[in-house]
Design brief:
The complex is a heterodimer of chains A (51) and B (243). Chain A is mainly alpha-helical. Chain A has 2 helices and no strands. In chain B, helix 3 runs parallel beside helix 8, helix 4 packs antiparallel against helix 5 and helix 5 packs antiparallel against helix 7. Chain B is globular and about 60 Å long. The chains are: A mainly alpha (51), B mainly alpha (243).
């Protein structure tokens, strides 16, 4: 069984390591959300034009 | 096979719709495997300590962020020479993901540099040219959005990206051409812990994951771009009605 507290501390460099991974995850989440919104807007536009 | 066929938005639109989920799944699987190797299996680096684990996302973001700009330049050449409609759409779809990954490369590099070099930022050749790449992505997006006439916007954007793509080899070779603080390829550092198989595989899998992610995002975004641009085309009306 691994020691999770030790894992998260990353040898005292947790701020840098998780600051990097956290920002990466956040950026991906934001990109996906923004792309979803854009796709929906584009679908709506295409649908309106087809009527 | 007639490749020109796939250069048409009409054929590429449904194809992209079928393909992107596969790339998304692949990205997820590769990322889980890569993160497992990188964070749990790979040993600690004896020089840098645990902070080197940032490289598992820093290297993929940098590599894919640069490569996307080259792909855009390739589509730019197609757009200007063959005048294929899809090429400019692909450029528009690639840019946001490329910009984001390059920003992440700088962000993660900065957080790696602070404990390793003692500074968040230095104006060395590699880092400065990577910052320039961010500005080029933003510049392309700003330029193409500022020009009202889409055809002219596409041409100007393609020209900008083709000419400025010279910056990508400059980033790549900067560590050899200039005496930079930024190290060369970490993978080749003999004796370094990077030499361990778990580390190399972790790095490779994460890079592939990032690649697949970028493809998935681009395919979804190009569909949105096609809908935006062709919303009053007859074929799009058909597609929209059938849903």
């Amino acid at each position: 069984m691994m020691n999770w507290a030790e894992f998260f501390s990353m040898g005292g460099r947790g701020f840098y390591v998780w600051g990097s991974y956290g920002a990466f995850a956040l950026a991906i989440a934001v990109e996906i959300m923004m792309l979803r919104a854009r796709s929906r807007r584009a679908s709506k536009l295409a649908k309106e034009s087809s009527q | 096979v007639n490749l020109y066929k796939f250069a048409s938005p009409v054929t590429f639109y449904p194809l992209a719709g079928k393909m992107w989920p596969w790339f998304a799944v692949l990205a997820g699987v590769l990322a889980v495997a890569g993160l497992y190797l990188g964070l749990f299996v790979a040993p600690v680096d004896f020089q840098q300590g645990e902070v080197y684990r940032i490289l598992y996302i820093h290297v993929p973001a940098s590599v894919v962020g640069m490569f996307i700009y080259l792909v855009m330049a390739g589509y730019g050449v197609l757009a200007l020479t063959l005048n294929t409609r899809l090429s400019a759409m692909m450029m528009e779809a690639l840019a946001p993901t490329g910009a984001l990954l390059t920003v992440l490369a700088l962000w993660t590099g900065s957080l790696w540099g602070r404990p390793t070099w003692g500074t968040y930022w230095v104006w060395d050749a590699r880092i400065t040219s990577t910052l320039l790449l961010v500005f080029l992505y933003v510049g392309y997006l700003a330029l193409t959005h500022a020009i009202e006439d889409k055809r002219r916007a596409d041409k100007a954007g393609a020209l900008l990206v083709i000419v400025s793509s010279i910056n990508v080899p400059i980033i790549y070779f900067s560590v050899k051409w200039w005496n930079t603080l930024h190290q060369g390829s970490s993978v080749s550092l003999a004796g370094n812990a990077i030499a361990s198989p778990a580390m190399r595989w972790g790095l490779l899998l994460m890079t592939l994951a990032c690649w697949m992610y970028a493809i998935a995002m681009t395919l979804v975004r190009v569909r949105a771009v096609i809908r935006e641009r062709e919303h009053d085309a007859a074929w799009m009306a058909e597609v929209s009605r059938s849903k």
